[in-house]
Amino acid sequence: MAYEAILYDVRDRIATITLNRPDRLNAWTRQMAGELRDAMHKASADDGVRAILLTGAGRGFCAGADMNLLSGLSASKGASHADEVPAPRGVPAGGSQRPDFQLPNTYFPAIPKPILGAINGPCAGLGFVVSLFCDFRFAAESAVFTTAFAQRGLIAEHGISWTLPRLVGLPNAADLLYSARKVRADEALRLGIVQRVVPDARLIDAARDYLKAMADTVSPRSLAVMKRQIWDGMFQSLAEANVTADHEMALSLASDDFKEGVAHFLEKRAPQFTGR
């Protein structure tokens, strides 16, 4: 599929997906949602891709839903939001099979490759929701986060009432949702929304350096399994998580990547993992 609302590039085994409506601060549209999902599945299916970088073009990550869309929904007195997003697609091989992670805006955990959100500038509303489904986030010093929903007469949408408290705790999540106040990068780091803050000019390079080290040195099979364990584990008891781990450990011990993991260490050379 030809992309108009996003950019897609693969280099150094990193797929970079860029929300590309810079004149609108990458405000979210139905087209952008569909193209992003297609690109995520494309990266998932590409054996030449080990990690995914998600960012925004221009001076912002995503300013939330396009106001023209919100205006149209208001005029139609609450037309079904489901009409504004594409139908769900199949689950990528190796990803989580939980139905929780198959919805139009919750599917990132089902992508069996690490997703890093590089937050450049404003990250608001639906843009904030999307960023929280990334596995981790780096922020530019100029990044600003806001839930925004309460200031639009809306609610905590698309699962942010589930993701945000798990990252920052219930009282902090309530603060950010109820007040819709703006959170700058340094506070986002303290709260645990982002894992690193870097100068604006270094954001993409820092994100790529981090992902390239991951792509070059760790087993893609291990990454896929651990990602599934982490996200599925939030629905499991400790006993269930341990049973899953024992099963996955037995499978990993029989894998080619395990053999390579031992061999490259003993032979003191760079690993050549295949994901098998």
UniProtKB/TrEMBL annotation:
Entry-linked InterPro entries: ClpP/crotonase-like_dom_sf, ECH/Chromodomain_protein, Enoyl-CoA_hydra/iso
Gene3D superfamilies (UniProt xref): 2-enoyl-CoA Hydratase, Chain A, domain 1
A Pfam family annotated for this UniProt entry: ECH_1
One Gene Ontology molecular-function label: catalytic activity
Annotated family: Belongs to the enoyl-CoA hydratase/isomerase family.
Official protein name in the record: Enoyl-CoA hydratase/carnithine racemase
